[in-house]
Design goal:
Length: 203
């Protein structure tokens, strides 16, 4: 009887350890899959540092969901997108930033970053419309080359009403802004590409 109890306890512990290792490996693989396109697209490096994606974020223009590295036409980007935020607690607050690190041109981005949109105090498990827009949405209008447009989600560790508006859209710096407002590393990010449309491309 004693031996049976010991074996049962050992099996239970081994199974628990197996589940822990499986979920840990799964999380690492998922994190790498999400981070790889951001690294390939140089979003990591040009805009943000390496981070651990921990909150779901969906960015949707009309019916088209933004996916890393995909190209969207500027004519479809005039209305602001719907941005759905995951998380686990309505009491958590998040800041959403949309920025262009390729302004005015990818070969000479001396205005990097150009800030297109900022919404703060977004409750977890909701969407950006529940937050407070402190920088009005400016739709992408690239003139020279292919531009990256990056959506970055940051958690407000100091709570609501703690994020101040930036001084300017031009030469905005996501890293510095995050540090100054106690936001830390991103919890989610996604980007798309866009370039100037010709008449032929609009057909």
């Amino acid at each position: 009887m004693w031996l049976y109890i010991c074996i049962e306890d050992l099996v239970s512990k081994v199974f628990t350890l197996y589940l822990y290792l499986w979920f840990s490996c799964f999380s690492i693989i998922m994190s790498r899959n999400m981070m790889e396109p951001l690294a390939v697209g140089r979003v990591i490096g040009d805009v943000v540092d390496v981070f651990n994606p921990s909150v779901r974020m969906n960015v949707i223009y009309s019916t088209k969901q933004v996916a890393n590295g995909h190209e969207l036409m500027p004519s479809t980007l005039v209305p602001k997108p719907r941005v759905e935020i995951g998380g686990h607690d309505l009491r958590d607050a998040y800041t959403l930033i949309m920025t262009d690190p390729d302004a005015p041109s990818p070969s000479d981005p001396y205005l990097r970053e150009h800030l297109h949109w900022m919404v703060v105090d977004i409750p977890g498990t909701t969407d950006a419309s529940f937050g407070r827009e402190i920088v009005e949405y400016e739709n992408p209008r690239p003139v020279i080359g292919i531009h990256r447009y990056v959506f970055i989600l940051l958690k407000q560790h100091r709570g609501r009403q703690t994020v101040s508006p930036p001084a300017s859209r031009e030469q905005f710096n996501t890293r510095i802004f995050s540090q100054e407002n106690g936001l830390g590393l991103p919890v989610a990010a996604v980007y798309f590409n866009a370039q100037r449309e010709t008449a032929a491309r609009r057909r």
